[in-house]
Amino acid sequence: MNTHHGNILFAHSGGVTSVVNTVAATIYRLAKAHQRKMFISPYGVDGMTQHTFIDGDGIAEDEWAKIHITPSSAFGTSRKPFDNSPKALERFFKNLQDLNIRTIFINGGNNSQIITQAIQEASEAYQYPLQCIGIPKTIDNDIHKTDTCPGFGSTAKYTATSVYEISLDLAAMCFSSTQVLIYEAMGRDTGWIAAASALAKKHPYAGPHIILLPEATFSIKSVIEKTRDILATHKHCVICLAEGIDDIDGLLSSAKHQYAYKSLHLSDILQKELAIKAHTVIPDYLQRSARHLSSHVDVMQTIALAEHAYLIAEKGKTGLMACIVRESTTPYTWHTSHIPLQDIAGKTRYLPSEFISQDQMFVSDACIDYLQPLIEGEEQTPYVAGVPDYSQFIYNNIAKKLEVLK
């Protein structure tokens, strides 16, 4: 497929991370070096539908440098599905033709890669010469056949650091105030982020003491009893759970209309059953946008994946997603590769059973060994007036989006 001399379209899709802009900036750098024009689809699928593409050359070089280190998406993203109706596709490919776009990079998670695959299949049906390349992105780390996903290492580092710090806080106050602290990490379907809290346990007394995962099997009664035992030994207990957990009796999910978060429900249960004071911490968006606490390994892998995606496009490949292959854990070595979109699109990678402790309320040493290298190293964030010096390009896109919607 000799399509790789045309222009490029880049889009973010799905939830943001602290490194998605690094992908966009890397692809732009490579396109410019190869004298190719890169267009960006603002707000992901929305831009494709509304045909309001941004010309990457219209962004100043110093702004691209800021975008490279800025969390979230400077161009906006969307969770909408791709409109593959005949009328929409006809207009979509007409716009690609007018702009001489021959390559699309979509930076997104497992469900977002369904969009990449759908565009690939549509281009074949319409006989439009187009390369569709996926670049993985998710803090949930749940994409099949890649050892890890850009954004996860930094979120894991944020989670471990936060749980480490709140564990120290709880220990200092446990004899006169709160004794149980519950930290609710993101993870609707998988427990990768919650599992990373185990990296905070630097001392036998330190939290987390309990980790509850969607892939584990446990009862509320067992959580109560383990918490009781930990309090008897340590006087304080830190519990980290993934938002998608449920107990074997379905008690936590049964009260979803009463509790916005399962951590709040569990807190009420433990306070009632153990007659103690419990507190909850819900980091929510904080855990996915904390570029100031990003992992160096995560950033390096993000750049390498973007470079690999560009390389396979230059070689005329299509229908693939770039991925990370772990060569060794100790020492930690890895390389980039690629896999067919059809092997990963829409599929979920769960924690393997060997990563869960025997009592189903913590993680195994194998899990800790897997996670530890992913949070190594620190990135330097520039500061101005005491806060990070990030790009504010997203606000320009909001203004343009509002004009389109009028």
Task: Describe the global form.
Answer: elongated
Q: What CATH architecture of the largest domain do you see?
A: 3-Layer(aba) Sandwich
Radius of gyration: 23 Å
Q: List the quaternary state of the chains.
A: single chain
Can you tell me the CATH topology of the largest domain? Answer: Rossmann fold
What is the mean pLDDT? 95
Strand order of the largest sheet: 3-2-1-4-5-10-11
Largest sheet: 7 strands, mixed
Number of helices: 13
Number of strands: 13
Total tally of structural domains:
2
The topology string of helices and strands comes to EHEHEHHEHEHEHEHEHHEHEEHEEH
Structural class: alpha/beta
Helix percent reads 25-40%
In angstroms, what separates the terminal alpha carbons? 40 Å
Low-confidence stretches: none
β-sheet strand percentage: 15-25%
CATH class of the largest domain: Alpha Beta
Active site: 140
Site (Important for catalytic activity): 137
Binding site for Mg(2+): 110
InterPro entries: ATP_PFK (IPR022953), PFKA (IPR050929), Phosphofructokinase_dom (IPR000023), PKF_sf (IPR035966), PPi-PFK (IPR011404)
Structure description:
This protein is of the alpha/beta class and 406 residues long. It folds into two domains: 7-151 and 290-347 and 377-405, 3-Layer(aba) Sandwich (Rossmann fold); 156-288, Rossmann fold. It is 38% helix and 16% strand. It has 13 helices and 13 strands. The strands form three sheets. The protein has a seven-stranded mixed beta sheet with strand order 3-2-1-4-5-10-11, with helices on both faces. A four-stranded parallel beta sheet has the order 7-8-6-9, with helices on both faces. The chain has a two-stranded antiparallel sheet with strand order 12-13. Helix 1 packs across helix 11 (296-314). It is elongated and about 70 Å long. Substrate binds at residues 138-140, 186-188, 243, 285-288. It is found in: Cytoplasm. It comes from Candidatus Synchoanobacter obligatus. Residues 7-306 form the Phosphofructokinase domain. Its main location: cytoplasm.
